[in-house]
């Protein structure tokens, strides 16, 4: 968000930043979208949501939008109760920040593809991917063992057994996956660890804040290493989507620019069309990149922050 050096623009920027901060630090403003589980479709809930004024996300036609994915949202902040995990029972819906669906849709998943979710826990985007298509193989990886358990539980709660058989869950450092499985995947999602602005701003006490500031400095290095590994894991012609839930330019545009400058086999894919078709439900800030979108929270559309960048691996190096 380079708003130039004019005083009027600075003033506008500071009003804007304070509005943004208000939303990020007030959970009462946060909205929760309801992603239906196509494997246990909630018909009754759907009627109820219509009566309550909810609408479906991406009503405008996106260049790619699978009909099997249904996500409902309301302009008024509200929160459905989460369903309890019960062994043997599939859940009917997943509550999420609607902007989380943008990286999943940017992957343009098709049936039969080999897909890697490099940083997968707690599994929201893996569940969303499976609402879009039936992959031939889905590899969900997570480095943190506690979060890995959460990921397994999410998959067990939403995905029927026959489909679970095409999913592999691993507990690897994502930086090693590319060397272990070179050029294996058609699509790779790197939903990277980042300085998550919602939880960082909301829960920081001074000790935590100091620790987070020092972690923050190291994040771009980790993010670049994760993408490098993802590039190796991707087959030529495959698509890579990188996402974070931070506004930090150092973790967003700068990371992607570094990858583009150091990988002649990666080319940016223009995703501005996505922003045009879903501007009713999301507010976007300029990123200075054709391949990068940044959703910023606004009252009534308190989704994000979410940065999404899309790259393609070329056939020849
Ligand atoms: C933003 S979260 C992923 C959210 C997830 N994609 C979802 O939609 O539910 C980032 C995840 O990356 C994991 N992570 C951190 N370092 C990692 C590494 N080196 N390799 C793989 N995963 C890592 C974190 O533990 C965290 O669960």
From TrEMBL:
**GO molecular function list:** RNA binding; RNA methyltransferase activity
| Residues in SAM-dependent MTase RsmB/NOP-type domain copies | 24-314
Q: Which residues form the signal peptide?
A: 1-25
Q: What's the main place this protein lives?
A: mitochondrion
Protein keywords: Methyltransferase, Mitochondrion, RNA-binding, S-adenosyl-L-methionine, Signal, Transferase
Catalytic center residues: 245 (nucleophile)
- An example Gene Ontology cellular component term from the record? mitochondrial large ribosomal subunit
Record has RNA-binding as a keyword: yes
Task: Specify which residues bind S-adenosyl-L-methionine according to the UniProt entry for this protein.
Answer: 119-125, 142, 173, 191
Gene3D superfamilies noted in UniProt: Vaccinia Virus protein VP39
GO BP annotation list: rRNA methylation
| Cellular location(s) | Mitochondrion
Family as reported in the entry's similarity comment = Belongs to the class I-like SAM-binding methyltransferase superfamily. RsmB/NOP family.
The protein depicted here goes by the name tRNA (Cytosine(34)-C(5))-methyltransferase, mitochondrial isoform X3
């Amino acid at each position: 968000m380079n708003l130039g050096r004019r005083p009027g623009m600075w003033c506008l920027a500071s009003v804007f930043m304070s509005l943004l901060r208000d939303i990020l630090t007030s959970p009462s403003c946060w909205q929760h979208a309801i992603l239906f589980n196509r494997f246990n479709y909630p018909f009754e809930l759907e009627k109820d949501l219509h009566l309550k004024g909810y609408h479906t996300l991406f009503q405008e036609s996106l260049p790619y939008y699978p009909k099997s994915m249904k996500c409902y949202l309301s302009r008024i902040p509200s929160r459905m109760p989460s369903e309890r995990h019960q062994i043997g029972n599939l859940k009917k819906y997943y509550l999420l920040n609607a902007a989380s669906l943008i990286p999943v849709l940017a992957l343009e998943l098709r049936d039969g593809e080999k897909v890697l979710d490099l940083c997968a826990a707690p599994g929201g985007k893996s569940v969303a991917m499976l609402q879009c298509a039936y992959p031939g193989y889905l590899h969900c990886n997570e480095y943190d063992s506690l979060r890995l358990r959460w990921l397994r539980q999410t998959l067990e709660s939403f995905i029927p057994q026959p489909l679970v058989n095409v999913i592999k869950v691993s507990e690897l450092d994502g930086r090693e996956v590319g060397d272990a499985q070179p050029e294996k995947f058609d699509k790779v999602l790197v939903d990277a660890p980042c300085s998550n602005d919602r939880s960082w701003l909301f829960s920081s006490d001074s000790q935590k804040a100091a620790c987070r500031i020092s972690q923050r400095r190291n994040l771009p290095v980790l993010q670049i290493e994760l993408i490098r590994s993802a590039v190796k894991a991707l087959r030529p012609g495959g698509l890579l989507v990188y996402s974070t839930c931070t506004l930090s330019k150092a973790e967003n545009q700068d990371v992607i620019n570094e990858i583009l400058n150091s990988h002649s086999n990666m080319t940016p894919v223009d995703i501005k069309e996505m922003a045009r078709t879903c501007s009713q439900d999301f507010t976007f800030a300029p990123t200075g990149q054709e391949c990068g979108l940044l959703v910023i929270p606004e009252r009534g559309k308190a989704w994000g922050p979410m940065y999404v960048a899309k790259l393609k691996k070329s056939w020849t190096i």
